[in-house]
Design a protein that fits this description.
The protein is of the alpha+beta class. It folds into 4 domains: 1-21 and 529-545, no CATH class; 22-150 and 414-528, Orthogonal Bundle (GROEL, domain 1); 154-222 and 374-409, 2-Layer Sandwich (GROEL, domain 2); 228-369, 3-Layer(bba) Sandwich (GroEL), CATH 3.50.7. Helix content is 46%, strand content 19%. It has 17 helices and 24 strands. The strands form 8 sheets. Strands 12, 13, 14, 15, 16, 17 and 18 form a 7-stranded mixed beta sheet that branches. The protein has a 3-stranded antiparallel beta sheet with strand order 1-4-24. A 3-stranded antiparallel beta sheet has the order 7-20-23. α5 (126-147) packs across α12. The longest helix is centred in the middle third of the chain and has 24 residues, at 267-290. The chain is elongated, with a radius of gyration of 31 Å. The relative contact order is 0.17.
C-alpha cells in the first residue's frame, strides 16, 4: 500500500495527493482486484447446476431471501469492492440480455481471472494476457456457433427441455414439468414475427405471485390477471362474453384548474348543483353503455355516483389499473385504450370469453380469461409460502428468458458442461498455432472453460478429477455432446439426458466473462481518497483544524 506520495526528488517524497489517500499500484493492485473478483465467483459457485446449494441472505431488518439464482444473490449482497462490483455487472448484463446463465457467467469470469493471476506471477504482462484472452474468446464464439443445433417455435419438445434445464436445481423440482409446459405455452402465445425472425418480448408475459396452494397449482391465463377488486358490491362478479372498455380518463366531475368560488344564495341552488353533477356523471356512464361494453377498466378514478350507475347497468368495473397492466390488457383483448369517453365506440372494445373476480391467497383478483388471440398472457405463480413463491417466480423468469432466447436466435447447444469441454479441447488445439506468451494465455482460457463441468461434478458430490478425465477422453473421441450425468455420477450424452441450453446463454456468458476479466486485468493503479480528509483534523466538515477560531 502506498500513501499519498507519488515520485521522489533527491530522496524527498513529492506529495501530489491529499493526506489520507490510499494508492495501490502494479501487481498489488491487480492481485487485490483478482482476489475480490474470485471471492464473488466463489460465493455463487456452489449454486451451479441441478445439485447446486441455496443461499440464505438476511438483511439489516431481518428479512430473508432463500435462492440459488446467481443475479439475485449478488444483488442482495452489499458489495463494496470496486472490482467485485464489476462482477455483479456481469451477472446483471447476463440477466438483462438472456435472463438465464448468470451463475455460469460469474464463475467463468472468476476462473479466467484466477488463471490470469497465475500468468502474472510468471511475469507475463497483462496486455499479452488480455490479447490472448481476446483471441480465445473470438475462437470460442465461432466454435459455439459450429456445434449449435437449430430450433424453432414449433419444436415444443425441445423448448420444454430447455425450460426444464433452466429450472434444474431450483427447489421446486417436482413441479418442473408442469411449469415447463406453462412457460413454453406462454412464449408461444406472445411470440411475433418480424422480417422472418421470431420476436419475443418477455414483458408481455406477466407474472402474478400469490402464496397458498403448491407450485403445481401455478397456471397460465390466456389473458391478464389484475391484483384489483370490483369497485362496487352491487356489480356482477362474473361476465361471460365480455366486451371490455379500456379508459384512460377519470369518470368524475373535474375540479376547476384555478381557484373558483360558487356563491349559493338559496337552498334550491344546492339541489340544482348536485343534480347537475349527477347528470354529468350519468352522461359519462351512458357513453360507456352506448359502446356496448359490459366490463370497464379505468386507469384513473371513478366517482361513487358513477359506480352506482355502472352497478345498476350490470357493468363489472375496476379503477386505478396500472398503466403497464392497461397496455397488457390492450394486447391481450385486442382493445384500444381511449383517453376520452366521447371517442369510445364498439370498435375500441376488447374481447374475453370470461372476466371474473376470484379470491386467491385471501385477496380478491380479477381474471380476464380466454382472449381470442392474446399477445400478452399471465402466469399466476403459486407456492406454499412467500419464500417458496419467490423462488418459483425466479425459476419461471429464468425459464421464460431461456426459451425466448432460444427461439429468437433459433439455435441451441447441449448442456451438462459439454460445450465448455468441447471449447477447452478445441481452444487448446487453437493455441498450438501461436508461439510465445500469447499461447500460454490462450491455453489458460481453455483450462478456465473446464470450471463449469468441474463445478457441476463438485456440487453433485462427485470426484471432479475423475469426471474431467472421462470428459476429456469422450471429447477426444469426437463425442461433442457428452457432459456430466450428475444423477449417475458418470459422463453421458447430454442429448439423451435432454439437457439443452440456448446458444445465446453460452455466447453472452463468454462475452461478458472475458470482457470483464480483460477490463479488471488492465487496471494497474487503484487510488481511493478518504472522505475524512475533507473535513479537517477532527470536528465538523469544513471546520479549520483545531476546531472553532477564538475571537
Amino acid at each position: 500500500m502506498v500513501q499519498a506520495s507519488i515520485g521522489q526528488l533527491g530522496g524527498q517524497p513529492i506529495l501530489i495527493l491529499p493526506e489520507g489517500t490510499l494508492r495501490q499500484t502494479g501487481i498489488g493492485a491487480q492481485g487485490s482486484n483478482i482476489a475480490a473478483a474470485k471471492a464473488v465467483a466463489d460465493a455463487v459457485r456452489t449454486t451451479l447446476g441441478p445439485k447446486g446449494m441455496d443461499k440464505m441472505l438476511v438483511d439489516s431488518i431481518g428479512d430473508i431471501v432463500i435462492t440459488n439464482d446467481g443475479v439475485t444473490i449478488l444483488e442482495e449482497m452489499e458489495i463494496e469492492h470496486p472490482a467485485a462490483k464489476m462482477m455483479v455487472d456481469v451477472a446483471k448484463t447476463q440477466n438483462e440480455e438472456v435472463g438465464d446463465g448468470t451463475t455460469t457467467a460469474v464463475v467463468l469470469a472468476g476462473e479466467l481471472l484466477k488463471k490470469a493471476g497465475e500468468l502474472l506471477e510468471q511475469n507475463i504482462h497483462p496486455t499479452v494476457i488480455t490479447r490472448g484472452f481476446k483471441l480465445a474468446k473470438d475462437e470460442a464464439l465461432k466454435i459455439l456457433n459450429e456445434i449449435s443445433k437449430p430450433v424453432s417455435l414449433n419444436d415444443a419438445e425441445t423448448l420444454k427441455k430447455i425450460s426444464l434445464t433452466s429450472m434444474g436445481g431450483k427447489s421446486m423440482e417436482r413441479a418442473s414439468p408442469v411449469l415447463a409446459d406453462i412457460v413454453v405455452q406462454a412464449v408461444k402465445e406472445v411470440a411475433g414475427q418480424s422480417n422472418e425472425k421470431t420476436i419475443v418480448d418477455t414483458d408481455d408475459i406477466k407474472r402474478e405471485k400469490k402464496h397458498g396452494g403448491s407450485a403445481e397449482d401455478t397456471e397460465l391465463i390466456r389473458g391478464i390477471v389484475l391484483d384489483k377488486e370490483v369497485v362496487h358490491p352491487g356489480m356482477p362478479k362474473q361476465i361471460k362474453e365480455a366486451n371490455i372498455a379500456l379508459v384512460d380518463a377519470a369518470i368524475e366531475v373535474k375540479e376547476t384548474e384555478t381557484d373558483a368560488q360558487i356563491r349559493i344564495t338559496a337552498p334550491e341552488q344546492i339541489q340544482a348543483f348536485v343534480e347537475q353533477e349527477q347528470r354529468m356523471l350519468r352522461q359519462m356512464v351512458e357513453k360507456i353503455i352506448a359502446s356496448g361494453a359490459n366490463v370497464l377498466f379505468s386507469q384513473k378514478g371513478i366517482d361513487d355516483i358513477a359506480q352506482h350507475y355502472l352497478a345498476k347497468k350490470g357493468i363489472l368495473t375496476a379503477r386505478r389499473v396500472k398503466k403497464s397492466d392497461m397496455e397488457k390488457l390492450a394486447k391481450a383483448t385486442g382493445g384500444r385504450i381511449v383517453t376520452s369517453l366521447d371517442d369510445l365506440s364498439a370498435a375500441d372494445l376488447g374481447y374475453a370469453k370470461l372476466v371474473e373476480e376470484k379470491k386467491i391467497g385471501g385477496e380478491e383478483m380479477i381474471f380476464v380469461r380466454d382472449c381470442k388471440n392474446p399477445k400478452a398472457v399471465t402466469i399466476l405463480v403459486r407456492g406454499s409460502t412467500d419464500h417458496v413463491v419467490d423462488e418459483v417466480d425466479r425459476s419461471v423468469e429464468d425459464a421464460v428468458g431461456a426459451v425466448a432466447s432460444a427461439v429468437e436466435i433459433g439455435k441451441i447447444v447441449y448442456g451438462a458442461g459439454s460445450p465448455e469441454a468441447e471449447l477447452a479441447k478445441r481452444i487448446r488445439k487453437f493455441a498450438e498455432g501461436f508461439s510465445g506468451r500469447e499461447q500460454l494465455a490462450i491455453q489458460s482460457f481453455a483450462e478456465a472453460m473446464e470450471v463449469i463441468p468441474r463445478g457441476l461434478a463438485e456440487n453433485a458430490g462427485l470426484d471432479p478429477i475423475d469426471i474431467l478425465v472421462e470428459l476429456r477422453a469422450a471429447h477426444e473421441q469426437g463425442k461433442i455432446s457428452y457432459g456430466v450425468d450428475i444423477d449417475n455420477g458418470k459422463v453421458a450424452d447430454a442429448a439423451e439426458l435432454g439437457v439443452l441450453e440456448p446458444l445465446k446463454v453460452k455466447t453472452q456468458a463468454i462475452k461478458s466473462a472475458s470482457e470483464a476479466a480483460e477490463m479488471i486485468l488492465r487496471i494497474d493503479d487503484v487510488i481511493s481518497a478518504s472522505k475524512l480528509s475533507k473535513s479537517g483534523a477532527g470536528g465538523m466538515p469544513g471546520m479549520p483544524p483545531g476546531g472553532m477560531p477564538e475571537y
